[in-house]
Prior knowledge:
Layout: H1 2-26, H2 33-44, E1 56-58, E2 70-72, E3 78-80, E4 88-94, H3 101-115, H4 118-121, E5 124-130, H5 138-145, E6 153-155, H6 159-168, E7 173-176, E8 185-188, E9 192-196, E10 201-205, H7 211-224
Parallel strand pairs: 4-5, 5-6
Antiparallel strand pairs: 1-10, 2-3, 4-9, 7-8, 9-10
Helix pairs in contact: 1-2, 3-7
Nickel (II) ion binds next to helix 3.
Amino acid sequence: MQRLIRILVLFLILGLGALWGAAAFNRQPGEPLGDAFMRQVAGLMGQEAAVPSVGGVQLPEGMVLGGPFRLTDQEGRSVTQAELGGALMVGYFGFTYCPDVCPTELGAIASALDLLPAAQAERVTPVLFSVDPERDTPEQLKAYVTNFHPRMVGLTGTPEQVAEVARRFRVFYAKVKRPEMTEYLVDHSSFIYLIGKDGRVRMLLRPQSTPEDIAKAVQAQLATL
Length: 225
Ligand code: NI
């Protein structure tokens, strides 16, 4: 397990994006991208089915993922990570037109906050970082995030700003256009990021983490802040 975590963290630094790309390419019909990714990681290690257990990967001291950012929130305000409120952000990179994965993950994040005592939940800001700046205007984000949680923040920006933040967080995203669809989709990595006031990632949670796992990880992080 230790070895698995070390190697997973190594991939985060060296080639998470590339691996997500490979997972997207190699995924079986109907297979969630997160599962395809975990299969990709396991395959590279010569372990057929072993995937990290549900739960978080704590980033080692000195490893930098994420960092300060300035984006536009759902009210159209230019904001930095420090201005978002709370001690901890639970961040997710997705887009409002996502048909299935994003709503599930954002729903899990909102449920996790509901599981926490109010005094703890108040210290946490849930954040959707858009990877679809073309369609995710502040107005579009505002209508969307409030479906999940009254305090959820939606962030967007210029394509360049979004690309830069995604690069810092090692988020893979790519437009996908299928012949039978009139609108494009955006394939994207699906980790949940626990982010401190400095914008740095403190912990990563794998796709399809349960609200209980997210809540536990959030509590553990809050205890250290
Ligand atoms: Ni999505």
